[in-house]
Amino acid sequence: MTASGNLPVVVAVDGSETAAAAALWAAGEAARRRTALLVYTAYGYEDTGFGGRMYPPSDWLVVREAEADQLLRQTRATLEAAVPGLEIATEASDRGPVPGLLEVSERARLLVTGEPVGAIEGLFSGSPDVDLAAHAHCPVVVVRGNESDDGPVVAGVDGSPLGEAAIAWAFEEASLSHAPLVAVSISDGNVPGEILEESCRRVLAGWQEKYPDVSVERRVEHGKPRHRLLAASRAARLVVVGSRGRGGFAGLVLGSTSQALLHHAACPVMVVRTATA
């Protein structure tokens, strides 16, 4: 599906319960993909911007490095017990969370984080300077809510290039999980439902041929995208969206729809920001 080859699934941990849940989800994802898992933590000062860097006192760094090493050892032991046979590597960085995670995303198949609360919340604030999902070099999965083991993968379909990339990832996730796919197109009232349905059918056709094992349900709904996708997340195992869209999805991730999904969805959310899935 991509040129990423055998790049690992990367999960960010910080000692929180939400990060621990993300690590377990990421381990399962790596196992499904038959690839390695990299457990990553960044323990340095947060940089003032993507290009800047601050250098904390060396004695402070020594303490933080020791804490990071202990966290990584404990997390690895937990994951090895939970998913026997999975190849697991660990890495600690003395950079701040935003630049550290942006850097590691360049060598990741997927970047997985916990629910955006506490320190992690700042990574998904909607600000262009700190919104990880808007700048990462690979899709970002935020593990939150209660994943439905028998629920579908839900994908937002809007006809944009990033929306098509999200569809590609959604089909792959559904196939790997042996789950159905629900493709949701949302009308704001300006486009007739039958036109949306036909557009959705065309977008999905090629992917259905590539993934004949995936059962697909097409839905055309009316209302605000965030309300409809939040409702769909209640019975889903994963919601997949593009980072920016067309029409009702315009501004996704940096706008209100993405913030609603990242902070209130009832299941994990994948955000795809690159046009090549």
Supply database-style keywords.
277 residues; Rossmann fold; 2 domains; 10-stranded mixed beta sheet
Helical content (DSSP H or I, runs of 4+): 25-40%
Number of helices: 8
Under the CATH scheme, the architecture of the largest domain is 3-Layer(aba) Sandwich
Distance between termini?
7 Å
* Integer tally of domains: 2
- Sheet with most strands: 10 strands, mixed
**Mean pLDDT metric:** 83
Q: What is the CATH fold-level name of the largest domain?
A: Rossmann fold
Would you kindly provide a written description of the structure presented here, covering whatever features stand out?
- The chain is globular, with a radius of gyration of 19 Å.
- The protein contains eight helices and ten strands.
- The protein has a ten-stranded mixed sheet with strand order 3-2-1-4-5-10-9-6-7-8, with helices on both faces.
- Helix 7 runs parallel beside helix 8 (256-264).
- 39% of the residues lie in helices and 19% in strands.
- Strand 7 (181-187), helix 6 (193-210) and strand 8 form a beta-alpha-beta unit.
- The protein has helices at 17-33, 58-82, 97-105, 132-135, 161-177, 193-210, 225-233, 256-264, and strands spanning 9-12, 37-42, 88-93, 110-114, 140-143, 153-156, 181-187, 216-222, 238-242, 269-272.
- The chain has two domains: 9-143, Rossmann fold (3-Layer(aba) Sandwich); 153-272, Rossmann fold (3-Layer(aba) Sandwich), CATH 3.40.50.12370.
- With 277 residues, it is of the alpha/beta class.
